Amino acid sequence: MKAKRRAVTASSRVAEQKYPTSPKRPSGTGRGNSTGATIRPSSGRADPPMPVRAGAVDLSVQLGRGLVLPNPILVASGTFGYGIEYGEVVDVDRLGGICCKGTTLKARVGNPTPRVTETPAGMLNSIGLQNPGVDAVIARYAETWATWIVPVLVNVAGESVRDYVEVARRLDGVPGVAGIELNISCPNVGAGGLQFAIDAGAAAEVTAAVRRATDLPLLVKLSPNVADIRPIARAIADAGADALTAINTLSGIAIAPGRGRPLLGNIYGGLSGPAVKPVALRVVYEAAQSVTIPVIAIGGVMELADVLDFLAVGAVAVQVGTAIFADPTLPVRLVDELAAECGRRGLTSYRPLIGTALPKKPAQPSSKGVEYRP
Amino acid sequence: MRLAAAELVESREILPGQWLQAYHAPDVASGSRAGQFIHVRPGDFSGMILRRPFSLNTADSATGIITIHFRVIGRGTEWFTRLRQGDKIDLLGPLGRPFEVDPRSRHLLLVAGGLGIAGVRMLVDEAIRDGRQVTLLFGAASAREVYPSNLLPDEVEYIVATDDGSLGHHGYVTDLVIEYEAWADQAFACGPAPMLAATARLATGRRERLGVAKLGRKRGAGKVDPVGSPAARRKAFLQVSMEQNMGCAVGACLGCVVMSTSGVPQRVCREGPVFAAEEIAWENAW
Hints:
Chain A is an alpha/beta fold. Chain A has one domain: Aldolase class I (TIM Barrel, Alpha-Beta Barrel), CATH 3.20.20.70. Helices cover 26% and strands 16% of the residues of chain A. Chain A contains nine helices and 16 strands. In chain A, the strands form four sheets. Chain A has an eight-stranded parallel β-barrel with strand order 3-4-7-8-11-12-15-16, surrounded by six helices. In chain A, helix 7 links the parallel strand 15 and strand 16 (317-320). Chain A starts with a helix and ends in a 30-residue tail after the last helix. Residues 1-45 of chain A have low confidence and may be disordered. Chain B has seven helices and 16 strands. Chain B has helices at 26-31, 75-81, 117-129, 174-181, 193-203, 206-210, 230-235, and strands at residues 2-15, 18-24, 37-41, 52-55, 58-60, 65-71, 88-95, 107-113, 133-140, 157-162, 169-170, 186-190, 238-241, 257-258, 266-267, 274-276. In chain B, a hairpin with a 7-residue loop joins strand 14 (257-258) and strand 15. The A-B interface holds A 78-81, 85-89, 101, 107, 109-118, 120-123, 125, 127, 130, 257, 265, 273-274, 302, 322-329 and B 1-3, 41, 45-51, 74, 76, 90, 92, 244-259, 263-265, 270, 284, 286.
């Protein structure tokens, strides 16, 4: 039973369209600058744009395999639970998508406390993937998800390729599950505990294995804790991922004030929040140039300007994470603000905003040195 | 749970570094119970991105005034002290589950350690309103950190212990618990984790030790309430209000957990902050 996915299916061929280059605009918009293949908002300045009604702006995002998000504002895994926690404070059906809490094959109790702490312009967390296991997640939440318009992507984590495959297999065909987001920033226990995400071969292996196990749309979440993201992004795309999400948290440590010892129970935590935004922009910028599949950006989105920045470096959608803790209504408000912004610029779709900061020729990779170039 | 703006009505430093602030938040004041908390966003967005949880210290539904009591420990709490009358804060609440008082309990023993008073203060009001007798045992490091008695209702019996003996009993507040153990029908505690663990240790096996009869036809007989349910907590002798670093405060991030005896970490913000003492794995299971 795949009712949910069928319901949002437009055509499976949309997967082959490359995002930034072919913005499909409905006929009859009547703007002089709408004839070019790529419409850059800055290029139309000579002819001031006619405002478009915000409700008429096309915000839908096609991610491949028939997965169509109603808008490009998602909520990031781990910050929105299973979608039900915020209750009446957030209208989930106005969101573009929900990435649920990381889910593993077996239940996990997670890391010792303290698990979270605030850091300058960010936070560190080391939850340790506490979750009730994939079967319990399906039993408890899938029925609710199936009643929602918003697509729910289940974030999947594991310790071995077999774990990932088994979780994906169990999620396959469950009504209410619109797709899978692979969290590959987990140690591969079978291969000496090295993270899948830091090795192109391991990342491709797990992606390909999950790809064979399920027909669900498959997103793979990149880790920023690598020297060069481009070969990894390319390997994952070649292995059959439908989209990339970037970035996962940056590894960090906090010291307990006045005690001179690590604050978090797990010592290491993942840094998120506005502090990581420049890193996320760089990773998305490099990934978007390396692959033809869509890239979804995460990392410090706090306001509309951040969304526009991520679209400019080539993301087709963004996930809001840590900012939800401060302002739970932010994602829904960003949807309205993005539509209003498109309307103000005279755009009938948000797609012309994508990739405006990308160079015509592939840019120098950041791994070649930032401050000093030979 | 709802998002609301609340206006600062009064703010003063009641003890060195400890502040009592009153806000006008009618929805929260009328819809909350003792033990619940609010999650407040500091208005300085330059570097602080998390909300701050505060226990509801008092809530008056008639005037719509809630109060919070906090110690200045960092930039966030320091920002709150600079608020002036009429300034607005953005709060999410009421959150968490409240203290469950058995309707038949006549004598309530409240145990507070330091700032833990903020966690049980509202229960004092509720219990006195319901005509119960309340004894509040309060422990602090020294006399200068003792909660002022004029901020408590007259009806409450207020007993102080200080670590350095500068006021009241010389020693820990838990030393006093034994004297009231037989008198109290139920006990409620909030404070540092070692204090709560010690109080829980004292409370274990109380019924057998004191030979307390199972009163009433329904009490504990026949029906077994699921662990953690309001009914099960109502039957517990000791309920504790736990503290933990918090992220979302609605149960989404799983940041603020405490280990339970069942082996599944429980969220302080959702299943708590009030737990029955026997739900908590005091000897940490991690």
